[in-house]
Amino acid sequence: MGAYSLQTYNQHQLLSFFNWFYWLVNLNSTVVFLGIAYIQQSVAQNLGFLIPFTSVLLALIAIHMTRSKLTYRPRKGGSLLTTLGVFLNSLKMCCLHRRHLSGDVVSWLDRAKENNGGRYSERHVESVKVLTELFPLYGLQLLYRACVTQIPSGYYIQAMNSNLHLDVLLLPIGTMNVVSILPLLLLAPLAEFVTTYLLSTGKTPLAPAKLIALGHACAALSVLGAGVSEMWRRLHPLVEQTLSGKVLQVSSMPCFHLAPQYVLLGVAEALVTPACSLISFQLTPSHIRGISLHFLTLSYGGGCFLGALILQLVHAVSGGDFYPNSLQDGNLEGFFFILSTLMAVNTLLFWRVSIKGNELEPDVTVLPGSSQDSSSSVLDVLKLFYSLV
């Protein structure tokens, strides 16, 4: 909802906004994984469900009470229906003509233009064409998001089958999620400080596409490290551990030996998510910027399904050997090695796409109405947060 309030911000201010936005989201997640996870695991499981249910209910009531101030009506041509209509009309016109694109049509989307027999104006179609240029960015986030979803899946299984005891205290499994969040909580303020310093000295910070490529590399290393950790975990003798009233045979390896893979994935999130949001926002026309962020979110959801699909394929090919009832008898590290290899290839593809034609680099020029003074960007962003609240 705040995307349409950022129209006059320059690149540094936008990246600062998204950095602090995701910082606040992850700060909230830290409270959830330390508090609610502990209550659900060690106090009462039903109470662990009641707390988030109550908070969501209160949030829905608050949104309903302030819905008039939260409703945004985009300008004509900026709706999701218009964007999808351009795609559908282009496909329809191509099927009706039953021929390849003629010489005077640069893109198949041009078939939707009114002067080519379509239903939409040139402005609408050209905006959608700009959006389609970001599809490689969205597509290359699918495998990255599949790696991130290992935290509540593959990494969770590893932590559950490791020794969670810290002396006499049984740590909640969610503690390991906090390990992945801490790098983001630390890196967001640090990145803001470094970027402001570089701009004040006349130097150019790292481009968003380079930040994304570096984050993808960290994700590949994280999954690779998870495979090595799994091999190391299986070498330790088994001990008994009680979780939610059930006695499990788990490895005696302390769960904190898994910390490096969580840290690497946290660093990846700190680099990738704000930079992707910046590129999706700044490279699209102002009236469809919210839709561009919707497509980015859709790619994140698609990554979850892709991760599940890869898991099912590996499970089917291995005949269930990778995921038996006792993880000690399985080969979970094989799945992690396969995923890390795919992620390494995905990183190289993204690097190639980002370099070729400089396609994923936002315009570094200052937008109309914005200030070039980088020292005031943090104050401006904080003012924007206050206005949104």
UniProtKB/TrEMBL annotation:
Transmembrane segments: 20-39, 46-65, 178-199, 211-229, 293-314, 334-351
GO biological process, one term: peptide transport
Record Pfam families: PTR2 (PF00854)
Keywords: Membrane, Peptide transport, Protein transport, Symport, Transmembrane, Transmembrane helix, Transport
Membrane topology note: Multi-pass membrane protein
MF terms (GO), sorted A to Z: symporter activity
Main subcellular localisation: membrane
Annotated InterPro entries: MFS_trans_sf, POT_fam
Gene3D superfamilies in the cross-refs: MFS general substrate transporter like domains
Subcellular compartments: Membrane
A single GO cellular-component term on record: membrane
Family: Belongs to the major facilitator superfamily. Proton-dependent oligopeptide transporter (POT/PTR) (TC 2.A.17) family.
PANTHER family documented for this protein: OLIGOPEPTIDE TRANSPORTER-RELATED
Name under which the protein is recorded: Solute carrier family 15 member 5
Gene that encodes the chain: SLC15A5
